[in-house]
User: Fold this.
Amino acid sequence: MAATDVIFDPLEFRNLTVPNRLVASSIGSRIDFYDGTGTEIRIRWDVKWAQTGVGAMISTHSPVDLRGNLSPHFAHIDRDDRIPFWRELIRRVHENDCKYILQLVFGGRHREVAGIHYDKGLSSTDKPDWFRGFLCTRMTTEQIKGVVNAFGQAARRAREAGADGIELHGANGFVITQFLSKEINDRKDEYGGSLENRARFPLEVVREVRRQVGDDFHVQFKISLAEHVREVYPWRRSDGNKVEDSVQICKLLEDAGVDAFHISAGANYPHPRNPAGKFPINDVARIFDQVSSGRHPWRDFVLLKSPVKHLVRHWWERPSHGREEGINLADSDALKKAVSVPVICGGGFQTASLIADAIERGACDAVALARPLIANPDLPKMFAAGLDRPPKPCTYANKCLINLAMHPVGCYDESRFDSREEMMGEAMAIFEPPAMVAAEDARPAPTATSG
Assistant:
């Protein structure tokens, strides 16, 4: 264990101490009510990750405004009457000695499902989303001020609910990316053009958040340091923001009051680098039949269901082939050299020695875990027991995230299980009610089984 003890050293942020260097990343599942009201299932879901042994967890994305919703069935933080739900959730997470960071989002032109209370998203541009073709409206200055205020109010609610901090989602094609990206942002006013102008919107968000929560509350920022636009769209004019662009942006954000950065990649989600690994084309095609929307259904049909699909899969898997674990470490290392606040790196981590080496050589201060934690929810405990890698590691099959559109998040790589029944039982376990005790004789009630 001596070589990997650094994983279990406390991590000191400016306003927060986390007991170890393992953070559960935003692991989403559509388990709330359609209108954004949180459920008991959501609470059980988050408690599940708090019990894994991570030092902190980042919530699933929580919209700050109805117009910024990405998909139905995720808990919102857009009104004050949402606070009691989050307060109870966070209380139960804290019972497991785990810090809770609430992720605030506004989708803009990026959505997963069409027709969520509105026809057009609010964005930095009026050009449709590249990936799904969802329509959007270029925000006016007044609308920008409204979204900035929505982030600030959501951060205030998170603090009142007892969260240990918030994460502003500025990566993967959400609205902050839409302003930051030189390949997406085509504005001609003070919010477009130069790097400083493109950074104006997120800087205003950070300053408004600080105005609402004060200087003694943890605020971190998730960013795609490199957008790699042409890895998905080779015909685009540029590759979008590069690491050197984003490093300059992060310096401005740090000066504005950001306490830490969470590193990702890609100007949209999904992207060949997020999640890195396999592109399960048959699963994608099956889900497409159920949730197809946007402006490109025929294009998507040809790409996913014709013989061309084999070329699509090869193209998608090419950038990350053999480099799935730690794919963002070089970017994280570049940022660490430029800022003075901690850096959390995402990227399929599941090997203790690799994580420890990255921390010790200063490439990052902590790692964010998603797919490997889905595959092995006791991964932190395995590391603590001296294992360098789990006996059944994540295969980076990415079926977990593809199935998110219609099913609970879980590992859907059947090769990792003894049977399909075992696989489905694990994915559906969150819906099983807790064992109940009969009042008259205190005998345990029968345990429900998954269908």
